[in-house]
Amino acid sequence: MASGDRRRLAVLGSTGSIGTSTLDVVERLGGRDRFEIAAVTGNGNIPLLAEQARQVGAELAVTADEHRYGELKEALAGSGIDVAAGRSGLIEAAEREADWVMAAIVGNAGLAPTLAAARRGADIALANKECLVSAGSLFLEAVRKGGGRLLPVDSEHNAIFQVLENDQRHAVERIVLTASGGPFRTKSLEEMRHVTADIARAHPNWSMGLKISIDSASMFNKALEMIEARHLFGLRPDQIEVIVHPQSVIHSMVGYTDGSVLAQLGCPDMRTAIGYALSYPKRCDLPVERLDFAKLARLDFEPPDEVRFPALRLARWAMEAGGVQGAVLNGSKETALEAFIKGRIGFLAMADIVEKVMDQLADLPAATTMDDVFAADEKARQTAAGLIK
Ligand code: NAD
Ligand code: MG
């Protein structure tokens, strides 16, 4: 139980980009004086995971990699910190009593642990967009039944969450997701055909994990975010717009029926969104860079190019089709992305593969249970892998 008014937190994916920013925010907002850390989890980076666990005084540290259990155990010997590994370890971390859980494991691997935390009734700070892309309404239902709150951390969704007044939801006409356009915003299709993962991962504005950085370059990240927004805010596909805004200063906008548009602005630093989710409904003090409008001078906008970035068109298709098409899009995208990172396929082939898989699996029945979602994800991965061979 929480002692005094200290809050108990768990950070799933603590060793990643969002995870380390989360621990930084926790430290700046009072560290051990205000927070107890029930669990931290990572994957391959055992030294960092062990260091984090000791630093924050975590009760449990988990590596997703079963083969690294011994290494983690050894690194934490004498600390009194519990150690676990593998999928069951991740579930154990999610099920440890904590009132706020940061869901920052990358990819579909984050779905089961986040779901476990949601079912338990924890407030979920959701960075892992794949939960909503793959499991959509089933995930929302689990959160609702659990009774916790869903606090969006993805910067666009966090921005919308900040400017969306609950009693005005009926008057929302559209939301406008901003996109930086990534490193290939001005590149031709021919130039994009030959880029490597090292080139694709260099994001102009945000510092993020490898996979989301490449997804930003292909705009698959924005595609996932469209589906994520649809579920989070209960909108029709035609109410979701994307605009390219290279400065990444406006994090997203809500348009109302009276013509008003409300936006949230800030420097591109995920700690603002994380801090908002941790302090909600209050605001906290964070030492992030402040916007200097005179220095900024201008904000640019351009429509997205769905020929060079077909991911956006595929997201609309998935939203309109409904059912398990979100899981199919995400599962095939993750498989294609892995193949691109390993140099087995080209950059443009990722969207080609996803489109073919979505086409081949267009008749999969809608999911009624989470097992159906996992089965659709698995089928999409196998189909994509078959196309890559
Ligand atoms: P990252 O690659 O930096 O970190 C991922 C974390 O997940 C690490 O702790 C890693 O150890 C863990 N992990 C990796 N594979 C795993 C597996 N198979 N099982 C369990 N754990 C595993 O990623 P990130 O950039 O921090 O992104 C995390 C999530 O947040 C993603 O879903 C991403 O889309 C989302 N997100 C990130 C940002 C950002 O700025 N980085 C912004 C918005 C949303
Ligand atoms: Mg985002």
Automatic annotation (TrEMBL):
<feature type="binding site">
    <location>
        <position position="221"/>
    </location>
    <ligand>
        <name>1-deoxy-D-xylulose 5-phosphate</name>
    </ligand>
</feature>
<keyword id="KW-0414">Isoprene biosynthesis</keyword>
<feature type="binding site">
    <location>
        <position position="156"/>
    </location>
    <ligand>
        <name>Mn(2+)</name>
    </ligand>
</feature>
<feature type="binding site">
    <location>
        <position position="222"/>
    </location>
    <ligand>
        <name>1-deoxy-D-xylulose 5-phosphate</name>
    </ligand>
</feature>
<feature type="binding site">
    <location>
        <position position="203"/>
    </location>
    <ligand>
        <name>1-deoxy-D-xylulose 5-phosphate</name>
    </ligand>
</feature>
<feature type="domain" description="1-deoxy-D-xylulose 5-phosphate reductoisomerase N-terminal">
    <location>
        <begin position="9"/>
        <end position="136"/>
    </location>
</feature>
<feature type="binding site">
    <location>
        <position position="225"/>
    </location>
    <ligand>
        <name>Mn(2+)</name>
    </ligand>
</feature>
<dbReference type="InterPro" id="IPR036169">
    <property type="entry name" value="DXPR_C_sf"/>
</dbReference>
<feature type="binding site">
    <location>
        <position position="129"/>
    </location>
    <ligand>
        <name>1-deoxy-D-xylulose 5-phosphate</name>
    </ligand>
</feature>
<keyword id="KW-0560">Oxidoreductase</keyword>
<feature type="binding site">
    <location>
        <position position="216"/>
    </location>
    <ligand>
        <name>1-deoxy-D-xylulose 5-phosphate</name>
    </ligand>
</feature>
<dbReference type="Pfam" id="PF08436">
    <property type="entry name" value="DXP_redisom_C"/>
</dbReference>
<feature type="binding site">
    <location>
        <position position="180"/>
    </location>
    <ligand>
        <name>1-deoxy-D-xylulose 5-phosphate</name>
    </ligand>
</feature>
<feature type="binding site">
    <location>
        <position position="45"/>
    </location>
    <ligand>
        <name>NADPH</name>
    </ligand>
</feature>
<feature type="domain" description="1-deoxy-D-xylulose 5-phosphate reductoisomerase C-terminal">
    <location>
        <begin position="150"/>
        <end position="233"/>
    </location>
</feature>
<dbReference type="InterPro" id="IPR036291">
    <property type="entry name" value="NAD(P)-bd_dom_sf"/>
</dbReference>
<dbReference type="InterPro" id="IPR013644">
    <property type="entry name" value="DXP_reductoisomerase_C"/>
</dbReference>
<feature type="binding site">
    <location>
        <position position="209"/>
    </location>
    <ligand>
        <name>NADPH</name>
    </ligand>
</feature>
<feature type="binding site">
    <location>
        <position position="15"/>
    </location>
    <ligand>
        <name>NADPH</name>
    </ligand>
</feature>
<comment type="pathway">
    <text>Isoprenoid biosynthesis; isopentenyl diphosphate biosynthesis via DXP pathway; isopentenyl diphosphate from 1-deoxy-D-xylulose 5-phosphate: step 1/6.</text>
</comment>
<protein>
    <recommendedName>
        <fullName>1-deoxy-D-xylulose 5-phosphate reductoisomerase</fullName>
        <ecNumber>1.1.1.267</ecNumber>
    </recommendedName>
</protein>
<dbReference type="InterPro" id="IPR026877">
    <property type="entry name" value="DXPR_C"/>
</dbReference>
<dbReference type="GO" id="GO:0030604">
    <property type="term" value="F:1-deoxy-D-xylulose-5-phosphate reductoisomerase activity"/>
</dbReference>
<feature type="binding site">
    <location>
        <position position="225"/>
    </location>
    <ligand>
        <name>1-deoxy-D-xylulose 5-phosphate</name>
    </ligand>
</feature>
<dbReference type="Pfam" id="PF02670">
    <property type="entry name" value="DXP_reductoisom"/>
</dbReference>
<keyword id="KW-0479">Metal-binding</keyword>
<feature type="binding site">
    <location>
        <position position="128"/>
    </location>
    <ligand>
        <name>NADPH</name>
    </ligand>
</feature>
<feature type="domain" description="DXP reductoisomerase C-terminal">
    <location>
        <begin position="265"/>
        <end position="382"/>
    </location>
</feature>
<comment type="similarity">
    <text>Belongs to the DXR family.</text>
</comment>
<feature type="binding site">
    <location>
        <position position="156"/>
    </location>
    <ligand>
        <name>1-deoxy-D-xylulose 5-phosphate</name>
    </ligand>
</feature>
<feature type="binding site">
    <location>
        <position position="16"/>
    </location>
    <ligand>
        <name>NADPH</name>
    </ligand>
</feature>
<feature type="binding site">
    <location>
        <position position="130"/>
    </location>
    <ligand>
        <name>NADPH</name>
    </ligand>
</feature>
<keyword id="KW-0464">Manganese</keyword>
<keyword id="KW-0460">Magnesium</keyword>
<dbReference type="Pfam" id="PF13288">
    <property type="entry name" value="DXPR_C"/>
</dbReference>
<feature type="binding site">
    <location>
        <position position="18"/>
    </location>
    <ligand>
        <name>NADPH</name>
    </ligand>
</feature>
<dbReference type="InterPro" id="IPR013512">
    <property type="entry name" value="DXP_reductoisomerase_N"/>
</dbReference>
<dbReference type="InterPro" id="IPR003821">
    <property type="entry name" value="DXP_reductoisomerase"/>
</dbReference>
<feature type="binding site">
    <location>
        <position position="17"/>
    </location>
    <ligand>
        <name>NADPH</name>
    </ligand>
</feature>
<feature type="binding site">
    <location>
        <position position="154"/>
    </location>
    <ligand>
        <name>Mn(2+)</name>
    </ligand>
</feature>
<keyword id="KW-0521">NADP</keyword>
<feature type="binding site">
    <location>
        <position position="155"/>
    </location>
    <ligand>
        <name>1-deoxy-D-xylulose 5-phosphate</name>
    </ligand>
</feature>
